[in-house]
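User: Predict the structure for this protein chain, please.
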Amino acid sequence: MTTKTDAMRHFTVHHDGVTIPVSRGGEGRPLVLCPGLSSTQSDLHELIELLRRDHDVVTFDLRGHGLSSAADRYSFEAFLSDLVAVMAELGRLDPPSEPVLVGYSLGADLVVHYACEHPDAVAELVLVDGANPVPEPFITEVDLPEFRAMWEYQATRPEAEQAKGTARQVLLTGQEILDLNLELDVIRSEMILDRYRKTECPITMIMSTNMAGDSGEGRASRLNQNWRAGIEHLVRERPHISTFWLDAGHGLVFTHALEVAQLIRSAQGRAPQATS
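Assistant: Here is the predicted structure, written as structure tokens:
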């Protein structure tokens, strides 16, 4: 027998020439989960199911991801407009209270910008391995050729080809992924700290210790140190932010879904603190 908690409701949002599929299910406090770059709501299935146990979970696919339609632009502002359109539709559906916004990777940056611009529409933020005001850009001129090759491979590898036409597809090219990451570097190193200064709702951050891999030397070590330095700077300036570090890579929402779900669940109403 299908219960209300088990049933998922699906609807679409049309805006800016794209169609955004939205899924909603569960009971409890409203929670909106925003995926990141190259991740879909289908990829996040395990985390979503865990959160649905005590939340009314809404999630969706960003343009060019999953079952969303392709678009003619994949800029940060374009992705932010997808989140704004979904939140506007939820507002028309009259949710019982303002939701907790959870964002993963790029999705974390999107929800911070949204909360800054719509302070009365958000109860709390939970940011998973993103929205980091890093002191130095992630991609340097020296690293650029290697990152370009990596994302070109990711966009054309056999698994990506097999995912086409499915709920796990990503339609962005390697160059489009690279361009967005370069744009995100600027936003994180030059702009996002100001967004935090203007955001007053409770914020919890769940970060990976090995965002760039677990090598203790070379580029991975430098990038991981830069990742931690960004959060340490943020918490010094905004001590009300709670931070938690998981011994994991950037895919922590997939590899450590249970731990992430537990931290999201316990984040609400928690006093600020930091863990290592």
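Confidence is low (pLDDT under 50) at residues 1-5.
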